[in-house]
Structure formats: structure tokens, C-alpha cells
Amino acid sequence: MPASETALSPPLEVQPAAETSPALARRLRRIATVLAIAAIGEAAGIVLIGAKGDPRFQLQPNLITVGFLATVILFPSTGALILQRRPFTRVAWLMIFLGLAVGFGLFTYSYGVVGMPPAPPLPFALTALVLSQLFFVPAIGAATTGILLLYPTDRLLSDRWRPVAAVAIFASLAYVIATLFKPGQFDSTNLPGVENPLGAPGALGPAFAVVADVANVVGLGGLFLGLASLVIRYRRADPVVAAQIRWLALVAVFAVTTLGISLFPIGPFDDLVFGLGLTFTACMPIAIGIAITRYRLYDIDRLINRALVYGSLTAILAGVFTAAIGLAQRLFVAYTGQTSDAAIVLTTLVVATLYAPLRKRLEAIVDRSFKYESRRFGAYRTQLESYLDLADAPEAAQRLAQEAYAELDPAGLAVIDHTEQVVATAGIWPQPIVMRLPIGRGERSIGTLVVGPRRDGRPHDAREVEELADLAILVGKAAAR
Hints:
- This protein is an alpha+beta fold.
- It has 2 domains: 15-369, no CATH class; 381-479, Beta-Lactamase (2-Layer Sandwich).
- The protein is built from 16 helices and 6 strands.
- A hairpin with a 7-residue loop joins strand 5 (435-439) and strand 6.
């Protein structure tokens, strides 16, 4: 939509937010926290099953193991932290779903593998194997596509991108249904002879196999279109939003490309390319963390600073634990001819010893690279900074746009002067205008703040709008002196 059309759009009436929204927000925050803890529990369960010593499921110190565990831990943890500040953010909920789904799929697969003969049978092991096939593609395909389509404004670039989201969801559902009834063995290497009990008979079997393959390819197309949406958004965005997008776009290019290549047989490089795809995917929460800490995305830079420390610490310790326990078990087998629980005890002691020095080292690295904003010298420094920011009209306009964007959570907003020319923006602009707020009064007015709709589609809160209107008047007075 051209800027001139947007500027002339009639403002809509602003309705107060629903009375139940604070209570709902609190419930959503608690749910997000519980789900993030559950994801960490999934990762711990996967590591413990891998430590049992069953040769059919061992966590090797390679990119596939790192990518899987980091995805399970980092996506839900980062999403839950975002939701503590913005509980209605769809990107964050998709991040939680992605990590939980990947973790549940890998956990059920590992449980099913070690629970099948010749090992002592475990209850529902075959059911777990059936369920394990249904989560990876919806998580990586649909959820990742959704994140790329919505980041960072939590809204689609335009309604034209709705079919892309619909295709990604449809492809994931088709894959789940086809895989559920596709006949054949689960894993010919680790589980020879164990076939899908729900496999369709006769000619239906090959048909379901074809549907699964086609759904995989269509899902890959959705991923590339989601990446294209992110690149287009980057090219249209203002400098702040472009900086927020840059790191995720870079990581997403490598992730989508390598995952796409991994769908096709390439001989001895299959595991390497798939591991790279998983690892680059696991780096997406880190890229979002960079946007948060350096460019104040979602305004939770302090939380993410700590999350980067403890998330990285958890991932590293999990990797050390996995590698060390595998080595210890092999040593016990070599010298005694059998596995031993002593390997787990010794490895746990090693990990506990590494915790404190590794945490301090990670804190130093993260604080140096992703330092959250801190203010010293109290209110006096804050007053001086505020005065200097507001003494110049362009600086005042840009600061007001940034603060209003952070508080109201709109898709975009702008400050326009008396000739309707845009002098400052925040978020994606232009947008349909839902409100106009004068910046100052009378001769002291320096322009008008025009605000687009909220990113979550809900009406703007009347109290927040009233407070912003008062702030805009004060900014106009300060800048006009």
C-alpha cells in the first residue's frame, strides 16, 4: 500500500482490551514455563536412554546429536522467555511447539528402539515407534515455516502469504497421515523385521509412500517460501527491524538449504548434511537471541542474556555427558566384558566438576557479545539522556516512535510532520492507520504519531493509548523549546 494511501486512511475506534486478558496472560506465561521445563525433561530422557548402552540407540558426539538436543532445549527455552514479556506472541508459541515436537519424536523413538527384542521388552514400545514418525516433519516443516513467515512482527508480510502457511500445514498433515499407514520396516538397520502394524495392505501401501514423499517435497517448498518472505521483509524494513532480521535470515538460509539437500540421497555425506541442517536450525533461537540483546526485540534482553548462558551451559554439559558416558561404557566393556552403572556415576561427577568454571566462562563471553542494557548513576543519568534525546526534533520523533512501538506492540507506526511527510518509523511501515496522536499542542506541535494495528490483531488498550497521548504532548513541548 502506498504511503499516501495509508496516511489518508480513516482512524478506527480504539476499544479497550478484554477484562480477562491479564488473567489469560498469566496463565499463558505459566503454561509456557511448564512446556519449556517439559522440553528440557525430554532432552534429559533422551540422554539417559542413550546412556543405557544399547547399541541400537547411542548418542554419538556428532552434529546430529548436537542439533537434535540443542533444538529440543533452545527453541522452547527462548520461546518461553519471550512469552514472559509478550504472552500472545505466535512466533514464541511456534518455537515451543517445534522444540517439544522434535523432543517427543526423538524420545518416543529412543524408548521404542531400546524396548524391542532382543532387549527386555518395555510396555508400549511398538506404539512409541509408531508415534515417533509423526512429529519431525510437522515441527521442522510447518513450525519453522510459520516462524519465518511471522518473524519479527508476529504478522504475515501481507494476506498474500496466507496460502504459504496453509500449504505448510496441509503438507504436514498429509505427511503424518501417509506415514501412519505407510507399510514397511521402521528402521531396517536398528530394527530389522519390525514393521508398521498400521501399514495399509495391497496397492494402498505404495500410494501412502508416494503421498509421504510428495508431502515432504511440498513442505520443503513451504520452507523456501517462508525464507523468501523473511528476505522480502528484510529489504522493506526500517534499519532497526532489518537488524533484527539479519541474523535469523542468515542462519535460515543455511538451515533450509542443507535440510533440503538432505532429502535426497548423496551417499556418504547424508549424515553430515542432515546434521548441518539440524545444527543450523538449532542456531535459529540464538539468532533471535542476538536480535533481542542487541536490538531490543521483544524487550527481554536481560532474560535472554541469562538464557544464552544457561542454555549454552546445558547444551555443552549434555554433550560432554553423552560423549563421556559413551567412552566410559566402552572402557568398561573392553576391560570387564559388560556395561556398568559406575560409568554413569563417574560421568556425573565429571559434569558436576565442570559446571562452575564453565558457567563463569560462558557468562564472560555472553556479557561481552550480548550485553543487556544497564543504567548507572541512577535517575540523574536517565534525566540527562532523556533531555539530550528530546532536545532535537528528529531525535525526539525517532525516540517516541521506538518507545511507542515497544509499548503498544503494533505492526508498525510512524511520525509524520505537518506536510504528511514521514520523519521516523518503527516496525513495518506503511500500515493501515488506527489512531493519530498529536505530538505537542498548537505552535509547539512537531507532528503527528500515526499507529498501525496490533501485531496480534487485538484492539489497542485504551489506557496505554491515553498514556501515550500524554507522552506525545510532553515530547512536543520538550522538542519545541
